[in-house]
Design a protein that fits this description.
The chain is α/β, with parallel strands linked by helices. It is built from eleven helices and 13 strands. The strands form two sheets. Strands 5-4-1-8-9-10-11-12-13 form a nine-stranded mixed β-sheet, with helices on both faces. A four-stranded mixed β-sheet has the order 3-2-6-7.
């Protein structure tokens, strides 16, 4: 029995950096690095979870080609069970060209490949029913699986007592809610980026976005907000924003999947939402310190050690959207109220309502 089954997209990533501008048409430009890495939400989150000490199985599909060999070898080398990874004789392995700018921002060219061919009937029900958490990773870029077919798999998992989790990617086809909507009543934990969630529900503010998703049946919503951390909301009414932590950015590729791995690991530990979100942000912050989607992810203990000395990355008041002002922190025990916050106090906070990572 695995702790987590990561079901979804498996990708070979070819990374080049730095790429700050495109070459002229028909011309050649040079980069300092070009490397091959594993990618795809299911692979990235699965490897992150394994590195954090979880027992992980992967379900997905790759082609019978060199990229497919690389993906399966890399998953095995990281300790993941790959019995559920199928090989397609017709479609090539999914691949992405990742252009990493000097500031760590990324642009992509993607070939869906074998990820498009996975069908619900190819997912072994006994594997799903015997796990603690099913993480559907990469919704919206799996044409043979997205929509009602995925919903049927999530529904069966929930009936078997499995906690269900879903992470989205950007939908270039614009079919957002058409494909994700059928899944939402069967999702315990939803982990989209804020931009993706805005496209799903048509709301702008994190609190409004989260509520719209709760209204469609989602239990816990954790909105990934990049350098602003995350906004977490439960169906019971708890809501807060957790800032991310200062880190030396090398490559932001995979940070969202690392966050998902950290969040799921916190759920496995039985932590409350605030401790879980703080840990997830730490895993995401460490991810960006190395090139590639998973190289920066540390072990469970190393991440806890990082948290002991990590500083929140906050530079503005977020009270209006997150019921909390991270003041870094003028109310922290032992610190005089000198007003040395990293941004002006908005006047709405008291020591009892401060939700900063230090209080």
């Amino acid at each position: 029995m695995s702790d987590v089954v990561c079901l979804g997209i498996l990708v070979a990533d070819v990374l080049g950096r730095p790429v700050d501008e495109w070459p002229e048409r028909g011309r050649l430009s040079l980069v300092e690095e070009m490397t091959l890495h594993i990618g795809g939400c299911a692979a990235n989150t699965g490897i992150g979870l394994a590195r954090l000490g979880a027992d992980v199985a992967v379900v997905g599909k790759v082609g019978r080609d060199g990229f497919g060999d690389f993906v399966i070898h890399t998953l095995r080398a990281n300790g993941l069970n790959v019995d559920g990874v199928l090989r397609d004789d017709q479609a090539n392995t999914s691949a992405t060209m990742v252009m990493v700018a000097s500031d760590g921002e990324r642009s992509f060219l993607h070939h869906i490949g074998a990820n498009a061919t996975l069908k619900p009937e190819e997912v072994r029900q006994e594997v799903v029913a015997r796990t603690k958490i099913l993480h559907y990773a990469g919704a919206l870029v799996m044409p043979g699986f997205d929509g009602p077919p995925a919903a049927s798999v999530l529904e069966r998992a929930k009936r078997a007592g499995v906690t269900t989790c879903l992470d989205t990617v950007w939908d270039a086809t614009g079919r957002w809610m058409e494909l994700v909507g059928p899944c939402l009543p069967h999702v315990d934990i939803l982990l989209p980026s804020l931009d993706e969630a805005i496209m799903l529900v048509g709301k702008e503010e994190p609190a409004d976005v989260a509520q719209a998703l709760h209204d469609r049946g989602v239990g816990t919503v954790a909105l990934k907000m990049g350098e602003k951390g995350c906004y977490v909301s439960s169906a019971s009414g708890q809501a807060f924003q957790q800032p991310t932590f200062e880190a030396d950015v090398v490559d932001a590729t995979g940070a969202g999947d690392a966050f998902a791995a950290g969040f799921i690991r916190g759920v496995l530990e039985g932590w409350d939402l605030e401790q879980t979100a703080r840990f997830a942000c730490a895993v995401g912050a460490l991810c960006v310190t190395a090139l590639g989607t998973t190289a920066g992810v540390r072990s469970f203990q190393e991440t806890l050690e990082f948290l002991k000395q990590a500083r929140p990355e906050v530079d503005r008041c977020v009270h209006s959207s997150a019921v909390g002002c991270w003041l870094a922190c003028v109310w922290r025990p032992g610190r005089q109220r000198t007003g040395r916050a990293r941004f002006p106090v908005c006047g709405k906070m008291t020591p009892s309502t401060c939700r900063c990572a230090m209080c």
